[in-house]
Amino acid sequence: xxxxxxxxxxxxxxxxxEYTLYAPLVARHCRAGQFVILRVDDEGxxxxxxxxxxxxxxxxxxxxxxxxxxxxxKLAQLREGDALRDIAGPLGNPxxxxxxxxxxxxxxGIGSAVIYPQAKNLHAKGYPADVILGARTADLxxxxxxxxxxxxxxxxVTDDGSFGAKGFVTDKLKQLLDGGAxxxxxxxxxxxxxxxxxxxxxxxxxxxTIVSMNSMMVDGTGMCGCCRLTLGDRTVYACIDGPEFxxxxxxxxxxxxxxxxxxxxxxxxxCRLRGEYV
Length: 278
What we know:
Blueprint: E1 6-13, E2 16-22, H1 24-29, E3 35-39, E4 47-55, E5 60-66, H2 70-76, E6 86-91, E7 103-108, H3 112-125, E8 130-135, H4 144-150, E9 154-158, E10 165-166, H5 169-178, E11 185-189, H6 192-205, E12 208-212, E13 228-231, E14 234-237, H7 238-241, E15 244-246, H8 252-259, H9 263-273
Parallel strand pairs: 7-8, 7-11, 8-9, 9-10, 11-12
Antiparallel strand pairs: 1-2, 2-5, 3-4, 3-6, 4-5, 12-15, 13-14
């Protein structure tokens, strides 16, 4: 079997696909929380994706990919049986939640790609976590059934109320904290504004909070500096120092500002790729 072949491809939402890839060396060594960097072809840019799941026996890894730019749209054009140019990984540090026993995993949107392997791993260790998953609408609640399988309790919220409670993940988290849930750790991943809101809330309750800063990375070695962020009084890099950090130390305002720096140019470029911009 050819390395990096697409063994299965499944569309989960209008712009989100799940890929099962043959990558035996990555599957042999990866752990929950780590990521890979792939190239679609020889001219492709290097783009990072969290390893959602893996099988050491079959030598496969699973990625959840949202089409948001040139490389992800190019990847979406490939079919089962096609192969990627290359995959580097596993990269980043694996998640370590062993110090905690009462954990709540909070995911927003495509953040389900990160909290799903955490839920599965904690379930296998014998102390399943509670899960809160939020999205704009029911169609975007990715991995809902899998999270229900591995979570101690699973809660779902949507902005429009099309599934679960209407509101935001912070609304449900506050309700649980006020109800005496007794969490000693909250693990959050999703849009930067969502993670900031979660950290602001948990700071009021004195609950340790870990966030996954899976922002844009290029080389995955800390050389390019694209994923740098301020953590307390020092500069760190999500690709080599993370991707997970103490959320109460992350300077979210700075990171959000940096991520918005080229939003207009990115939007125009993406529209050109789709033939929608004149």
